[in-house]
Amino acid sequence: MLAVAELTNDSIIGPGLRVRPAYDGSRANQTELVPVVRYFGQTLFVRSTQGVLEGGARMELAEGLHVGAQLAYEPGRKASESPFLKDRGMPDLSTGASIGAQVEWDHKFGPMPVTLLARVRQNTVADRGAQLDFRLSAGVYQNGRFSAGVFTQATWANAKSTRYLYDITPQQAASTGLPAYVAGSGWLFASLGLLWSFDVSEKWVVVGNVESRHLQGDAARSPLAEHKSNYAASAGLAYRF
Question: With 150 labelled, which of 29, 125, 174, 197 sits at a CA distance of 20 to 30 A?
Fold first, then answer.
C-alpha cells in the first residue's frame, strides 16, 4: 500500500515545514511550522492531510464510505506578512474555526488507492461565511520506500466568505488608494498538487507535497489579488503509531 499520508489509514504525527503565500493572491511568501498528523479511531479522527487541520467524528455507512462532522482551523490573514497589504494599511483577518460535515469515499482500483472528499465548512463567526470543498486524491507511483500521488481540489465560497477575504470597503478604499470592491459567491480556487512520501524506517516516514493554486471568480478579480496563481510546498517527518 502507498505510504502517502493522504491515501492511507496509517496513524502518524510529527512536525512539518511549509512555504506558502501570505494569502491566496499574494506575491509574498511565508515559511511556517505546521503539524503533520493523521489519526482515525473507532469514531474520532484528527488530520492535517486533506487541506485543512481538522478533527471530529465519523461513521462508516458502507465499505470505504464515511460521513462525519468536523471542527477545522481557519488561518486568517496577517497584513505584516504582505508588503502589499502592509503598505496600504489593510487590516488583519484573525484566525478562527469552522464547523461542518463531510462525506469521504476510499477505494482501490487495482493497486491504486483513490480518495474522494466533499466537505462543507461554516465559520463559527457567521459573517465570515461558508465554503464547500471537493477533493480527489490518487496514488500513482511506488518504488521501494518511495511513493507518490496526485490531488486536485476545488473550493466554492458563499458571498459572506468571499467578501470577508477579498472585499475592499469604501472606508478602506478611501484610506488605501485601492478601488472599492464587492465580491459575490462562486468558485474561490482550484488547485492541483503532488504528494510524496519516503519510508525512513518501519516507524518513521518523511512526507510532503507541492501545490499549485489558482484563484477563481470574484476572488481572482479583486484588487487584493496580486497574482491569480500561487504555489506552496511542505515537508515533514512523522512517526507511525
Answer: 29
